Amino acid sequence: MTAVKPPRVISPSLQGNAIVAAGFGQNVILTTVTTFILVYLIQYVHVSTAGIAVVTTIITVAKIVDAVSDPVMGSIIDRTRTRWGKLRPFILFSALPVAVLTGLLFTVPDVAEPAQLVFFGIAYLLWGLTYTVCDVPFWALIGSAFPDPMVRTRIVSRVRAFGAISLGLATLGLPYLAQALSFDLTTNAGGWSRAVFLVAIVGMALFSLAFFFTRERETVATTRLSFRQLFGTLFRNTPLLMVLLGSVLGFGRNIVQAGGAVFAVIAYGDPAYFTLIGAAIILGIVIAAFLTPLLLRLMTSRTLVIGSSLVGAVFYVALYLVGYRSILGMVVFIFLTGLTLGIFLVVQATMIADAVDDSEARTGVRNDGISFATLTFVSKIMGALSVLVFGVFVVLAGYEDGVTITPVMQNIVFASITIVPAVSCIASAVPFVFYRLGSSKA
Question: Where are the transmembrane segments (predicted)?
Answer without folding.
Answer: 20-42, 48-69, 90-109, 115-140, 161-183, 195-213, 234-252, 272-296, 303-321, 327-351, 372-399, 411-435
